Amino acid sequence: TWYLLGEVIQRITRQPFDLVLREALLVPLGIDRCWFAADALNPPPMRAPMLACREGTFFPATIDDGEILAHARPGSSAHGPIRDLGLFYEMMLRRGRAADGRRVLSEKSVSLMVKRQRKGLVDKAFREAIDWGLGFLLPTPIPDPGMAYGYSPSASADTFGHGGAQSSGGFCDPWRGLVVCYAYNAMAGEARHQERQCRLLDALDRDLSAAFNDAI
Questions:
Q1: Please, what is the Cα angle at 201 between 181 and 60, to 5 degrees?
Q2: What is the average per-residue pLDDT within 107-126?
Q3: Is 123's pLDDT higher than 90?
Q4: DSSP string, 111-173
Q5: Which of 69-73, 101-105, 118-122, 209-213 has the highest mean pLDDT?
Q6: 163 forms bridges with which residues in the sheet?
Q7: From the CB of residue 17, how many other CB atoms can be counted at a distance below 10 Å?
Q8: Do the strands 51-54 and 57-60 form a parallel or antiparallel pair, or are they unpaired?
Q9: Residue 90, pLDDT score
Q10: Which of 22, 47, 173, 199 satisfies CB 3.0 to 4.6 Å to 178 for a cystine?
Q11: Alpha helical stretches, state H, the chain
Q12: How crowded is the C-beta side of 56, counted as CA atoms within 13 Å?
């Protein structure tokens, strides 16, 4: 579906989707080190290598392959500092405004993106019931701490976010005014990734909940 969305953007604007996203979204947010494709004229900036695990052995992940990095792919080829992902979620927290106050997305668009568009249905990829907005994974009514790419049990019902495949992720909890983004340096396999993800979210939740309670 993300390929279809990318093609819709290109047919409407008659420009490459990555150029449209850069000019309409990244530049206004001050995101200047994110790129969608690398070539001889546009080499990638310094970046940490990603590892993958097979039968207990780590090796360079295929996502770092030069031919793969050379192609801009909607929904799966963006690379950049994890801090820049935080700038995006902070814009969503401000209901579509950049840090300097200029509007990047309309409030209506933000509302539609984080509203439950699919509710209580089993996701065929993750094989469990997951609620979705437009591109954002939303907490289920009954929190499941082991849910794939989910959130901690204390996350508010309005939390929204998305996880990269065994590699990174981010989310925003508007009720707590909270944005969290994180990255791992290895794709450890789905089961091991979910285990470390639960540990990470639990640790974050304990620390941040304590800080939040102290603040109020």
A1: 60
A2: 92
A3: no
A4: HHHHS-SB-SPEETTTTEE-EE-SS-EE--SS--TTSTT---TTS-TT-EEEEETTTEEEEEE
A5: 101-105
A6: 169
A7: 22
A8: antiparallel
A9: 97
A10: 173
A11: 2-13, 17-21, 66-69, 82-93, 107-114, 190-215
A12: 0
Residue of 70, 83, 108 lying closest to 29 (CA atoms) = 83
Instruction: Tell me which residue of 1, 206, 4 sits closest to 118, measured CA to CA.
Output: 1
Q: What is the residue type of 146? A: G
- Name the β-bridge partners of 11: none
Query: CA Rg, the chain, in Å?
Result: 18
Determine how β-strand 168-173 pairs with β-strand 178-183: antiparallel
Buried b (16+ CB within 10 A) or exposed e, 156-172: eeebbbbbbebbbbbbb
Distances in Å between the Cα of 101 and the Cα atoms of 65, 98, 125, 160, 207 are 39, 5, 38, 22, 30
